[in-house]
Amino acid sequence: MTTIFDRLARNRPAEPKIEQPYENHPQRLLDWLLQHWTNPTICIRDIRAYAPRPVRDEEIAISSAETLVRHGWLSELKAHRHDRRVWRIDRKPIIHPTIPAE
After folding, report:
1. What is the pLDDT of residue 59?
2. Which CATH code, of 1.10.760, 1.20.58, 3.30.70, 1.10.10, is assigned to 37-92?
3. Three-state DSSP class for 63?
4. For residues 83 and 74, is the Cβ–Cβ distance under 8 A?
5. What's the CA angle centered on 91, arms 52 and 33, to 5 degrees?
6. Rounded to an integer, what distance in angstroms lies between the CA atom of residue 43 and that of residue 84?
7. Where are the beta strands (DSSP E) in the chain?
8. Do residues 3 and 38 touch, judged by C-beta distance below 8 A?
9. Distance CA 43, CA 35 (A)
10. CA distances to 9, 20, 61 from 66, in Å
11. Domain map (residue ranges) of the chain
């Protein structure tokens, strides 16, 4: 037995699939660091606890931070523990910095 909704949908064209834009996680992390993070250093634990949700995954957080190191926005510091990663934030006087998508 068909419902009224099935009969109405029979003549309707298929809905186009909406593609999600590519997520540039390093850019999102950089924007958050420059706008919200006031400390001069940040560690992976802070990123996973306080950063925007898409960046909180451990692999994404580390790869985003390494991308920011390559572009000169972070400098890796020697941590007092072997399993800890710490970076110094190198703030620059740029209005809207952009990181190219990789």
Report:
1. 95
2. 1.10.10
3. helix
4. no
5. 10
6. 7
7. 41-43, 74-77, 86-89
8. no
9. 17
10. 49, 25, 9
11. 37-92
- What count of Cα atoms within 13 Å lies in the side-chain half-sphere of residue 85? 17
Please report where in the chains the tokens 């970076």 appear, as a residue: 87
Tokens representing 94 are 């740029």
Residues in the chain with pLDDT values less than 70: 20-22, 102
Please give the pLDDT value at position 102: 66
Closest CA to 74 of 58, 61, 57, 91: 91
pLDDT of residue 20: 66
pLDDT at res. 9: 82
Q: What is the pLDDT of residue 83?
A: 87
CA angle, corner 72, sides to 69 and 76, nearest 5? 40
